[in-house]
Amino acid sequence: MKGNISFININKSFSGKRVLDSFNHQFELNKVHVILGKSGMGKSVLLKSLMGLIEIDDGEILINNKNLKDIKKDDEFNISYVFQFSALLNSLSVIENITLYLDEKNIGTKDDRLIKANKILKNLGLEDSSEKIPSDLSGGMRKRAAIARSLMIEPQILLYDEPTAELDQINTKIISDIILGLKNEKEITQLVVTHDVAFAKSIADTLSILDDGKITLTTNRQGIGGLDHPLINPLK
Amino acid sequence: MNGIYNFFNNVGKFLSLFWETILSLKFFSSSIDKILSQLFEMANRTLPVAALISLSIGAVLALQTGIQLSSYGIQDKIGGIVGVSLCTELAPVMAAILMAGRVGSSITAEISTMSVYEEIAALKTMDIDPVKYLVLPRFVACLVALPFLVIYMDIIGWLGGSIVSNLNQSISVSFSAFYQDLSQVVTFADIASGLIKAIFFAITISITSCLVGLITQGGPREIGLSVTKSVVASFISILILDYILTRFLILVGLL
């Protein structure tokens, strides 16, 4: 599907501090967009406003020129969110976390849900951990389980909030492989906020830098190598 | 001024969550598994302690009252006094305090942990209503469990009273005399008034515990503070509500 996600004049303040300041940007659908920025620059707020977890003060979010609220009302797009610290429900096993959405919405039979969940878990290398509770998993496994839970709703837009936070290099590589795999296998728009430059470079179709509530620089995959910004080349 | 604003703000949030929970009752049938699991957990947490408390209260009440009564030679009235005191006042209030301390605190701890670690936000991203998923089962379970707990405490409290009345030589009232007086004095209205109180206490405890959990923000320190806040708020609400309900029940002729 062609089209884009448009943020138009978005403002958001917390306790008088402006986090998003007349934020304007467009993200093309079916690409991996990475937003780089230091902590506290409004990266997570941007994702949460797209997810509907945070009400913006003013401005508009459009997907293919249609307002986000209307899109949600009409159930046109599935948007899913991978939280920075996974946010799996600790009272449930991994498989119960993965099937939670379908269980609660009563979609399909119990067997269908389990088959679908097990397939996703297998693709993400978690087939042996389905009965464990999230607190028994390593950080990388928890992150993969959170991605699996997001994939169960078959999202057209998948948002990642610092997906490599607290992960070592091996797990970071696994997450970037998952993101690239999804890009090749599905029609899915992936919006990733991170401060991990190497990870950003490894997955991005476009890379933008968020500074003080605004995008100050954007480049496509070809331009990433020659990008000159203190955040990307801190020693320069 | 700030305190008054906070008070009315919290009352508003309480009423709003209560109303949302009432509206979510339409999902009752799909939540039966979760309600039963909550009921089982509540029974597990409260029944042994409730037995100990009510046995002790019944025994002490009989001991203190029985000795006084025997000095006037009317100790055979002990069954009615213990019976009415327990079912109209002591059992509902003690059951509610126990429920707030044992169950309410664990509800707040669980839900505030979920809030702090973004599990509630995760539910929202999946379009799962936290009120339906978390509050409804706990609300219904409390509403069912507390009246049962009151009846359970009534019976065990009466048993404690009858044992002391029978064994204490200063009182020396037989089991049959104790229960005969109890059955003559305690009316259906007395038991019903205890159950009415229990229903209001259950609403207060479940909504307060869930609300405090849902609005918790911050980190692990805030989880601890929320649990304390929820228990204290429940205790105060129970005591105020107890007075108001007693006045009301007297007014309508149930007491």
Helix content of chain B: over 70%
**Shape verdict of chain A:** globular
Order of helices and strands of chain A: EEEHEEHEHHHEHEHEEH
- Assign an overall shape of chain B: elongated
Helix-strand topology string of chain B: HHHHHHHH
Give the termini separation of chain A.
Answer: 40 Å
The count of DSSP E runs of length 2 or more, i.e. the number of strands of chain A, is 10
- Domain count of chain B: the total is 1
What value does the average pLDDT of chain A take? 91
Structural class of chain B: mainly alpha
Based on CA atoms alone, the radius of gyration of chain A comes out at 18 Å
Instruction: Give the number of DSSP strands of chain B.
Output: 0
> Helix count of chain A, per DSSP?
8
Percent of residues in helices of chain A comes to: 25-40%
Mean pLDDT of chain B: 96
**Share in β-strands of chain A:** 25-35%
Describe the protein.
The complex is a heterodimer of chains A (about 240) and B (about 260). Chain A contains eight helices and ten strands. Chain A has helices at about 45-50, 70-75, 95-105, 110-125, 140-150, 170-185, 195-205, 220-225; strands spanning about 5-15, 15-30, 30-35, 60-65, 65, 80, 155-160, 190-195, 205-210, 215-220. Chain A has a domain at about 90-155. The longest helix of chain A is centred in the last third of the chain and has 17 residues, at about 170-185. Chain B has about 260 residues and is mainly alpha-helical. Chain B has one domain (about 1-250). Chain B has helices at about 1-25, 30-70, 80-115, 120-125, 130-165, 175-185, 190-215, 220-250. The longest helix of chain B is centred in the first third of the chain and has 40 residues, at about 30-70. The interface of A and B includes residues 51, 88, 89, 101 and 106 of A.
